[in-house]
Amino acid sequence: MRIFSGQNEKDLYIEEVWERLESKYLHVYPFLTDHEFKDLFGEKVLNAMAALNCPQDKCGLCDTDIDCPFYSTRLDRCGIDPYKPVHCRLWHCYECGPGQVVKDLRELTAVFADHMGPETKAREIKKALERAELSADGATERFVKLIQEFRNEAPRPETICSTIRGKSSPALP
Questions:
Q1: Structural domain boundaries of the chain?
Q2: Alpha carbon of 4 to those of 1, 27, 44, 77: distances in Å?
Q3: How confident is the model at residue 154 (pLDDT cuts 50, 70, 90)?
Q4: Pick from 82, 78, 34, 79: which is nearest to 60 by CA?
Q5: What Å distances lie between residue 79 and 46, 57, 71, CA to CA?
Q6: Does the structure show a pLDDT above 90 at 156?
Q7: Range 62-95 burial, b when 16+ CB lie within 10 A, else e
Q8: Which whole number is the average pLDDT over 73-77?
Q9: Rg (the chain; Cα; Å)
Q10: CA distance 89 to 139
Q11: Does residue 135 surpass a pLDDT of 60?
Q12: Segment (H or E) for 159
């Protein structure tokens, strides 16, 4: 199974995604909501991703492979799940197979490589979490607030609270 029937189809697809990215999502890229990601990449990539079957779903190995500043083994999922970056959504381990689909997705990852926004601040939060100076909920809340600020959004209490499994946490400094 392949995502694209050939290089021409792949090139046309990439051009279309770039056009949508530049016209609709550049101001928030790479931190996209599920809806924004689906709109940007469309059914072709979503169907390919649905064909994957990671033997250790949500294991964190992919996050560790790319040294994600928003992920720590002390979290039970991505620290910025409501705004998961494009790179993280497209990158999969080969064990998730089929191998050609993973390869095609990884090639798209390279084409649409994104910086991780406020990486320095994110790594500070991650280090504090790993030194046990922050709880998982506190780190998740700070990660989400950091991305909302990056996206120029006012923090939405319902997003923060749902991100930390419905628990409230102390206000951020």
A1: 7-163
A2: 9, 28, 9, 30
A3: low
A4: 78
A5: 22, 16, 6
A6: no
A7: bbeeeebbbbbeebeebbbbbbbbbbbbbbbeee
A8: 81
A9: 17
A10: 21
A11: yes
A12: helix 157-163
